[in-house]
Amino acid sequence: MKIAIINGPNLNLLGKREPGIYGSESFEDYFQQLQKAFPAVEFSYFQHNVEGEIINYLHQTGFSYDGILLNAGGYTHTSVAIRDAIAAIKTPVIEIHISNVYAREEFRHTSLIAPKCVGSICGLGMKGYRLGVEYFVA
Questions:
Q1: Which domain holds residue 12?
Q2: Annotated binding site, which residues?
Q3: Residue 95's beta-bridge partner residues?
Q4: How many whole angstroms separate alpha carbon 68 and alpha carbon 133?
Q5: Per-residue pLDDT, 130
Q6: Which Enzyme Commission numbers does its entry carry (predicted)?
């Protein structure tokens, strides 16, 4: 089982950025916990602030992995190109958000990528990634 985790813009600052919304744990620390919790899963982790690099990684993993967990950050609400990349690949994608985007600013209530994903998990903190992994391994 191979699962790619892709985080978009500003998620490299998890643990430092707005801890009241995103918590105080870095993603790197959480990623180690995921690897220990699911030793049979081969994980890859990629974070980038540039839209095109996220698209390139979707293309790279989207035909050879069993699942992708994508937290596109702010690109969720603006990127037709990421939506098209998800539609173009064979690997199923789950949209992940640490915060409850529906309890935040109105512009965050629309996801351009959700219709091309198999599901969405939001508002459950970092636990959303674990739930996404559980979906794929079940």
A1: 2-137
A2: 71, 77, 84, 98-99, 108
A3: 70, 120
A4: 9
A5: 98
A6: 4.2.1.10
pLDDT confidence of 113, banded at 50, 70, 90?
A: very high
CATH number, domain containing residue 52: 3.40.50.9100
Q: How far apart are CA 74 and CA 101, in angstroms?
A: 10
Per the structure, the count of domains in the chain is: 1
Question: Known catalytic residue: 22?
Answer: yes
What's the predicted TM-score (pTM) here? 0.94
CB of 92 closer than 8 Å to CB of 118: yes
List residues forming the annotated binding site for substrate: 71, 77, 84, 98-99, 108
d(CA 96, CA 81): 18
For the cut 90, the answer to whether the pLDDT of residue 136 exceeds it is yes
